Amino acid sequence: MALHGGGPIGRRQVRDGDGDRRLGAAELGAELGERATLLQFSSAFCQPCRATRRTLSEVAAMVDGVAHIEIDAEARLELVRALGIACTPTVLVLDAAGRIVRRASGQPRRADVIAALGDAV
């Protein structure tokens, strides 16, 4: 299964969360944020993934209690399949309990990320 960018830069798909599914530090390999977590699935040669990393890191640094975790999708195929990740970059916004409250594929804009965090905190 090869994962790659989901189309032209700027083309995004956003949807609400995945119900009661919760993700934890053990499953993700990093601690969740106190208030919310921006979980990014990336692949090695994905240019939009690099820009997404910068955007999410900047937002996490601006908002107290928000963590940014990046996962190499190709190295974590079991998790990718379990979560239905179809392309990179895909970003999941988790609340403090690790519930998925928002999901988006494609390169996000900073304003969209900040707005999505409103659903989590």
UniProtKB/TrEMBL annotation:
InterPro entries: Thioredoxin_domain. Residues 1-20 are annotated as: Disordered. Residues 34-115 form the Thioredoxin domain. Pfam families: Thioredoxin. This is Thioredoxin family protein. It comes from Streptomyces niphimycinicus.
